[in-house]
Amino acid sequence: MDFLNGLVFLTNFVIIPAAAYGAQLALGALGITLVYAILRFSNFAHGDTMALGTGITIKLTAVLVAFGITLGPLPTALLALPVGIAATGVILLVTDWLVYKFYREQKAKPVILVIVSLGVMFVMNGLTRVFFGVRDIQFADGERFLITVRQFRDMTGLDEGLAIRTTQAITLVTAVIVMTALFWFLNKTRTGKSMRAFSDNEDLALLSGIDPDRVVRVTWLLVGALATTAGVLYGLDKSFKAFTYFQLLLPMFAAAIVGGIGNPKGAIVGGFLIAFAEVTVTYPLKKVLTYWLPDSMAPEGLVQLLSGDYKFAVSFIILIIVLLFRPTGLFKGQSI
Amino acid sequence: MIVVENLVKTFGGFHAVDGASLTIREGSITGLIGPNGAGKTTLFNVIAGVLEPTSGRVTMAGEDITGLPPHELFHKGLLRTFQIAHEFSSMTCRENLMMVPGNQAGETLWNTWFGRKRIADEERALRAKADEVLEFLTITHLADHKAGQISGGQKKLLELGRTMMVDARIVFLDEVGAGVNRTLLNTIGDAIQRLNRERGYTFVVIEHDMDFIGRLCDPVICMAEGKVLAEGTLDEIKANEQVIEAYLGTGLKNKDQVATA
């Protein structure tokens, strides 16, 4: 019984939140990895693209709610999401046309494009703050819990409860759908294959009748979809705040690099790895250990390895360890 | 068919191609020879749109194609292969071939979701064509192998196969024979001759193997130090003194004599 209680406690406070956070990071890292694989630069503007896309979706959600349209038990934001994705896609295409295209035609070095993306980041950052404000915004409506602590306790008779929030369930389901669709797209469709070909060998792709402009356009549209979805899911699960999204850039990059940047499978594994490490290390595990260890060995302290303030440090420790022992990332990077 | 006029390509201060002018006849298999560093590959790269020329002009059937990007040249029927074989390493040989034709129905997002039938029909046709090409090249057994894992010589065949997936008009082959054994080289030579005769492809071939050049090419153009030295049959070229000099160095001759020669 003690073991089960400990497991339920761990699931409730570590495994489920980490899985949801991991899915969000993975979706974000997928966007970063796609840009890296196909456009060949590290896109620092990705966090703020997420913020911008989420901001748009929030406004649309507010409009829908004002007209009395909701999704019942599900958050209304899901209804606004497709439009938010489309809007973000258009913004990215315009950004590409205004900014990146110029440098691409110059055949600028990747490091220059990185700095350019830094500029784009600041602009998007500013736009987000101007249009959507800097405050915390809660926009999750509908049913809050799939299972509450009390329901779980009544069902199982255990001391510890397990709550699954609707947003966590939605995050995981959506992530699975989006990832499956992405892999199907990349592996089975001609457009996806063109993208893979372009990522694998740009010179050859150009000599195979693959239209590079089309590949770039499709890439930005996919990146817009991934970023907005990741941003909205994160916002539903926690809350929307421009600065938090900017900060998310760090764990997302760590996830992409740990997995092997340019490799979508790596981005997914990296996302979950970083999330689990972050949550496990910053959560006080005292109660779990008390359940699991014999009484004589029960810990006295909180067994919180790092304070929550240091959670971003976890990504970097993992990043450094991986780069030291396996510089290409867990999966070999740079091709999709 | 292709006319190159006074083409110059410099990298920094180095003149890789230094005022080369040449004409490639339609339906010919033109050999391009010259010592290492003569600017042959750079010339290819400029013609094929990989590099922008510093100055000069390239026309194809009277149309100015100077500095057009590679994929546009591809649609005009100008194809090239690489000195070091390129392939999409994570795809199978068949998929590599199926990638080649441009403007496929499946390439637009719209058709990806709403034009499934058209795509399926097209893919079936492409697949049949790819299998035909693989058979022509005697590598049917490699169809489902990852292209990154086949041998260097087989990759060269795959490169040639790529040009057969579309109706090419002119194909630039950059050292198809490098690192390829005799038997395979003969297969490649046969394929080139058949494509030239049966489909009317024009070929330009960079090659160091003189037997190969002698068997296939007429005329042969010799380059050195970014310039065209001589043009003619291989025997004429071999007898040309400037060519011998370029290959063997000035030897014992003294520099003044060379300058006046």
What does this structure look like?
The complex is a heterodimer of chains A (336) and B (261). Chain A has 336 residues and is mostly helical. The C terminus of chain B is likely disordered. The two termini of chain B are 32 Å apart. Chain B has eleven helices and ten strands. With 261 residues, chain B is α/β, with parallel strands linked by helices. In chain B, helix 6 packs parallel to helix 7. Chains A and B meet through helix 7, helix 8 and helix 9 of A and helix 2 of B.
Based on CA inertia axes, which overall geometry of chain B fits? globular
C-alpha Rg of chain A (nearest Å):
21 Å
Give the N-to-C terminal Cα separation of chain B: 32 Å
Strand order of the largest sheet of chain A: 1-2
Low-confidence sequence ranges of chain B: 251-261
Count of β-strands of chain B? 10
The biggest beta sheet of chain B reads: 6 strands, mixed
Order of helices and strands of chain A: HHHHEHEHHHHHHHH
* Cross-sheet strand order for the largest sheet of chain B: 6-7-8-3-9-10
Query: Which structural class best describes the helix and strand composition of chain A?
Result: mainly alpha
Share of helix of chain B, binned: 40-55%
Question: How many H/I helices of chain B?
Answer: 11
- Tell me the fraction of residues in β-strands of chain B, as a range: 15-25%
List how many beta strands of chain A DSSP finds: 2
The oligomeric state of the chains shown is heterodimer
Residue runs with pLDDT of under 50 for 5 or more positions of chain A: none
Largest interface: A-B, 24 and 33 residues
Q: Strand-and-helix sequence of chain B, N→C?
A: EEEHEEHEHHHHEHEHEEHHH
Taking the alpha carbons of the first and last residues of chain A, their distance comes to: 46 Å
Which features characterize this protein?
heterodimer; A: mainly alpha; 2 strands; 72% helix; B: alpha/beta; six-stranded mixed beta sheet; four-stranded antiparallel beta sheet; globular; disordered C terminus
